[in-house]
Amino acid sequence: MSDFTPAVETLLRTIAEAGDKGAQFQVAPRRRYQLVGTDYVVDQRSFYPLTAGGYVTDGGDDTAPVRVTERGREWIRQHPVPRGGSRGPYRPRGTRPAHQAPARRPARFGYAGGFTAELAERVVVITCPANEVGGATLPADGWEQRAIDRHPTLHNVEGPTIAGSYALHWRGDSRTDADLLVQSLAIVRAEPARSS
């Protein structure tokens, strides 16, 4: 049985994983094929050893799904992927188990005047700038309820903390995280300042 290059072997295993329905490819630029519904792209020449050797077939129709033959299945059985090997079927990015996925860092932004803002789980934390006597420069009293009344998706406002921070809880808001950050900062900065 043939010894394939890594690209050809990955292609064979990817086609085999598609099962009886086969793997549907479409023509891509620069003499390549793309697996439909994914970003997996393979050179046309990677198909040559598989089709010439009878490991895969499209039944003579270039537009039909490609299926692995019995000879291809036998090759896969005789060449198991070693534990931790890299020649398995194509896997789209982002399919690693959750315990291996790197923790997502919340977006954090700095603004003129010393304000900073970050967002986690649709909660925007606004830290007010410190003034010259060591306390924070906070918005005027009662601004929290006025903000909730004006913005229907603003569910709650917590704070201020000792550090001069407020947590704005948004619920059911379709805006992007960046838009919520900008909106939250605009709400806090629009209120007349008071010293803590």
List keywords for this structure.
196 residues, alpha+beta, 5-stranded antiparallel β-sheet, 3-stranded antiparallel β-sheet, 5 helices, rod-shaped
Question: Could you give a quick summary of the protein structure above?
Answer:
The protein has 196 residues and is an alpha+beta fold.
Mean model confidence by pLDDT:
78
- SSE order: HEEEHEEHEEEEHEEHE
Structural class: alpha+beta
Q: Overall 3D geometry?
A: rod-shaped
Q: Over the alpha carbons, how many angstroms does the gyration radius reach?
A: 28 Å
| Strand line-up in the sheet with most strands | 6-7-8-11-10
Beta-strand level of the residues, as a percent range? 15-25%
- Per DSSP E runs of 2 or more residues, the count of β-strands stands at 12
Described by strand count, sense and barrel closure, the largest sheet is: 5 strands, antiparallel
N- to C-terminal distance: 79 Å
Q: What count of helical segments does DSSP give?
A: 5
Tell me the helix content. 10-25%
| Uncertain parts | none
Write the layout of secondary structure elements.
Layout: H1 6-17, E1 25-28, E2 32-35, E3 41-43, H2 48-52, E4 56-57, E5 67-68, H3 70-78, E6 107-110, E7 116-120, E8 123-127, E9 137-139, H4 143-150, E10 154-158, E11 165-170, H5 177-190, E12 193-195
Antiparallel strand pairs: 1-2, 2-3, 4-5, 6-7, 7-8, 8-11, 9-12, 10-11
Question: How would you describe this protein?
Answer:
This protein is α+β, with helices and mostly antiparallel strands. The mean pLDDT is 78. 21% of the residues are buried. It has helices at 6-17, 48-52, 70-78, 143-150, 177-190; strands at 25-28, 32-35, 41-43, 56-57, 67-68, 107-110, 116-120, 123-127, 137-139, 154-158, 165-170, 193-195. The chain is rod-shaped, with a radius of gyration of 28 Å. Helices cover 24% and strands 23% of the residues.
